[in-house]
Amino acid sequence: MNALAKNAVTNVGLIGAGRMGMPMVGHLAARGFNVRVFDVDATKRPEVERRKAAWQGDSRSLAASSEVILICVGYDRELRELVHAGGGLGNVARGTIVAVLSTVEPKTIVELAAESAQRGVHLVDSTVCRGARAADEGTLLAFVGGEASVVERLKPVLSAFATDIVHTGPAGTAQVAKAANNLVMWACLIADHEALALAKRYGMDAEKLREALTISSADNYVLRTWGTNTMAWAEDDMDIVQRMAADRAIALPQAGLNRELCRMLKPKRFKLDEYGV
Fold it and tell me: Rounded to 5 degrees, what are φ and ψ at 131?
């Protein structure tokens, strides 16, 4: 896209050029957006500029020049420090859309959205699924929680790196959708390991079986992308699920067990000979 439609967003800021954020920078620039990036790690500047985006030395200067700000930080604490009045985005202009791509607790988004609304800022959550490879390819799934009119204005930005965009409801619901996604995904990864490890002990070709299972009723995303998942955020994801469950006084026994299994699985993931030993 060489020219963006009249009245559409043109200036996009991104905070957090990590494994997921960095590919987004390139996709956004390729779509014709004016992209400004800030990360606490200044060594990322050359790669950001190679992807045709402008480096910003601090989050406040980024906020002052952005119509949409995408936040890709790791934790609730970092998000709160940015968004609270007086924080790193304290000078954001009225009417700006702040989209939180981070995986945090829903109540954090609800609180920050209400606080931001008092300043005339639209804070939405826009969680992404499908992992780093999809980020590289620009084929992420985006769950978006916020007012429908705000989500519509945001969609052209998200479509630069997401092929599927689902409006989940009000602010905070995208975090619920992401938690549900993660709960199922990590359960599948554990089940895949157990199924393939068992089959291998019986002398089967595990890779041949894996391919067969992808066209069976046992098919799942992590089985199809076997060997690529780093499990970098597995424990954090499951901790969020458990805190959410506690907030609503619901018991999720499988999720609790899977949190512990993920902790044990991570050092020997995809090593079927070591699984169950």
Answer: 85, -175
DSSP secondary structure string for all residues of 58-107 = SHHHHHHT-SEEEE--SSHHHHHHHHSTTSTTTTPPTT-EEEE-S---HH
Q: For the segment 250-271, what is each residue's pLDDT rounded down to a tens digit?
A: 999 999 999 999 999 999 999 9
The residue assigned the tokens 């199809």 is 224
What is the pLDDT, as a whole number, of residue 6? 46
At 222, list the tokens.
Answer: 């992590």
* The pLDDT of residue 3: 38
Report all structural domains of the chain as residue ranges with CATH numbers, in order of start.
Answer: 11-170 (3.40.50.720), 177-268 (1.10.1040.10)
Tokens 């790690």, located at residue: 41
Contact of 25 with 35, CB cutoff 8 Å: yes
Q: What stretches in the chain show pLDDT beneath 50? A: 1-6
In order, the DSSP letters of 253-264 are: HHHHHHHHHHHH
- Report the distance separating Cα 71 and Cα 69, nearest Å: 6
CA angle 88-169-38, nearest 5°? 20
pLDDT of residue 7: 56
* pTM of the shown model: 0.92
- Return the pLDDT at 85: 74
Q: What is the dihedral of CA 145, 150, 153, 157, to 10 degrees?
A: -40
CA distances from 20 to 93, 127, 198, 203 (A): 26, 11, 34, 38
Decide if 87 contacts 69 (C-beta within 8 A). Answer: no
